[in-house]
Amino acid sequence: MILSDWDIRVYIEKKLLIIDPLFDDTVRENGVDLRFGDEFCRFKRENSVVDTSRDGVDNVLECYRVRGDGFVINPLEHVLTTTLEYVEFPHDLVGLVNLRSTFARFGLYIPPTVIDAGFKGNITIELVGSTVPVKVYPGQRFLHLILARTSSPVYKPYTGKYQGQRGVTPPKLDNSSSKNF
After folding, report:
1. For 35, which of 1, 86, 101, 139 is 20 to 30 Å away at the CA?
2. Is 101 known to sit in a ligand binding site?
3. Could you tell me which of 142, 143, 122, 138 has the C-alpha nearest to residue 66?
4. Is 126 a catalytic residue?
5. Whole-number pLDDT of residue 55
């Protein structure tokens, strides 16, 4: 069941759902709006191949702290960004992340993203550029997070490799290799 603004406020008031900072316009009719943080990472323009079975991306990402001047997302560029807000999900809520329609109308896109029950941290989002450069700014509301209650609290809440992340978190490889299946 998707939570209404009333239900969301109850979760927040009871400190079952943490959103920090929480602004007056965060809670919406059927979800919460989250803002750009001040960190953006783009992939360097290189011809080297990133091997997802063994390579990290530290050597192919350029990360920036952005202030009032904003950040330009180039045409069809893939960037990583983060939410300003730190969130903590209870064991009976999941989040369905959507780009706010204003940013979609500029041609930006995010892939489907789910926030698992029990997740704690800033949310790192993959953002794909439009056909024209688009400038965005820290503090702008850019995501709409729909909250859905599970039929019961999950047996195994999220404890994965992105638990507790702060700021942009690049991909982390699994310990097991897909080459050995």
Report:
1. 1
2. yes
3. 138
4. yes
5. 65
Of 29, 85, 88, 126, catalytic: 126
Instruction: Decide: 114 and 97 in contact? Cβ < 8 Å.
Output: yes
- 36, 137 Cβ separation under 8 angstroms: yes
Q: Are 80 and 61 in contact (CB under 8 A)?
A: yes
Question: pTM of the entire structure?
Answer: 0.91
Residue located via tokens 């702060």: 166
Residue boundaries of the structural domains of the chain: 5-45+58-164
Residue 149 annotated as lining a ligand binding site: no
User: Residue 175 — very low, low, confident or very high, per pLDDT cuts 50/70/90?
Assistant: low
Amino acid occupying residue 169? T
CATH class of 5-45+58-164: mainly beta
User: By three-state DSSP, how is residue 149 classified?
Assistant: strand
In the predicted model, is pLDDT for residue 154 greater than 90?
yes
Residue 116 among known ligand-binding residues: yes
pLDDT band, very low/low/confident/very high, at 180 (cuts 50, 70, 90): low
Type of residue numbered 136:
V
